[in-house]
Write a structure and sequence with these properties.
Layout (H helix, E strand, L loop, with lengths): L2 H10 L9 H10 L4 E8 L2 E8 L4 E6 L10 E2 L3 E3 L7 H13 L3 E6 L7 H9 L7 E5 L9 E2 L2 E9 L3 E2 L8 H13 L7 E7 L5 E2 L2 E8 L4 H12 L4 E8 L2 E2 L9 E2 L11 E4 L13 E3 H17 L1
Parallel strand pairs: 3-6, 3-7, 7-17, 8-16
Antiparallel strand pairs: 1-2, 2-6, 4-5, 5-18, 8-15, 9-13, 9-14, 10-12, 11-13
Helix pairs in contact: 1-3, 3-7
Length: 309
């Protein structure tokens, strides 16, 4: 196995679900060479890692957390399988190795990207990456350079009813109200409308007094983003906005405009692009994997890209 393959395997063996990134953070610090390193506390014991070398205005950024779910580590002749193999521990491994090779570079490793972007938000508020700095946000892109992305609006719709025995003829059911509301929203044809969570009720023979659903939509452009926000304010239900990010195009970067469907930390850093090895279709899946060939190619590609900025 190559150096980056061995490092990735070590990273995969360290669980780092969102909220539990401390162990992998300490491991990353132990692997860095020649950097001035600072742990930036985000909340509780969770921390970002800020590593600086030389006088560079360029950054590699990679998030340390993964979605939940244990996937057995497996290695065959073509791929490495495991939670984080694609998203995003291959990026961490590449950042460490390339960072150790270069004499003038900065690294930022963040927490909470898969949940609430707490790490990136903290880094932005602190001005870690300056307005004149450039950043490569490392994510699986199949080596495409992504210069922008859809927005993302995450919201919860809550409905209220009145608890009663299920035999009553005239029911005031929160769940039935919620079903009608979701049907109404789906007909609006918002981009990438997805009902991710739904809950409510107490028992099968009790009319539900409460229900809620968490929904994510990803507006393609500012016009759709504004329209969705206007329509959410008019809904006949309680709406709680959890994430509200506009679509972004970082057109100051010297690359053709390419808009990604997924949301990433380029939302928080002005002069940034998204780039990396791996196919996003394997991220978050029970078959998460990274091509060993692509993993090894990534090192050279990153060096070429950071030098071209």
């Amino acid at each position: 196995m190559t150096t980056i393959e061995k490092l990735l395997v070590k990273l995969i063996k360290i669980p780092s679900f969102s909220g539990s990134e401390g162990k992998i953070g300490n491991f990353i610090v132990s692997q860095l060479r020649g950097f001035k390193i600072r742990k930036q506390i985000v909340d509780g014991k969770r921390f970002n890692i800020i590593a600086r070398k030389g006088n560079s205005r360029k950054w590699f950024v990679a998030h340390m957390d993964t979605v939940a779910g244990n996937i057995p580590l497996k290695i065959d002749s073509q791929n490495i399988f495991g939670r984080g193999a694609c998203d995003n521990k291959q990026s961490i491994a590449a950042s460490i190795i390339v960072g150790n090779q270069l004499t003038d570079i900065n690294l930022l490793f963040t927490v909470g990207e898969e949940f609430d972007f707490a790490g990136a938000k903290k880094a932005k508020r602190s001005g870690i990456i300056g307005k004149k700095d450039s950043a490569i946000i490392q994510e699986p892109t199949n080596f495409e350079i992504i210069t922008g992305q859809r927005g993302v609006i995450t919201f919860t719709v809550q409905t209220a009813g009145k608890a009663a025995h299920s035999s009553v003829d005239k029911q005031n059911s929160a769940i039935q109200k919620l079903i009608s509301m979701l049907y109404f929203l789906e007909k609006k044809k918002w981009t990438a409308f997805n009902v991710g969570l739904i809950s409510g009720g107490i028992a099968g023979n009790i009319v539900s007094d409460r229900a809620e659903a968490t929904i994510v939509v990803r507006p393609d452009n500012i016009s759709e983003y504004d329209r969705i926000n206007r329509e959410l304010r008019r809904l006949d239900a309680k709406v709680i906005i959890k994430n509200d990010f506009k679509p972004i195009i970082n057109d100051a970067m010297p690359f053709p405009v390419k808009i990604g469907k997924g949301f990433s930390e380029i939302a928080f850093f002005k002069n940034s692009i998204k780039f990396g090895a791996g196919n996003i279709k394997f991220a978050h899946s029970d078959n998460e994997q990274i091509s060993r060939t692509d993993l090894n190619i990534l090192l050279e590609r990153l060096i070429d890209l950071i030098q071209s900025i």
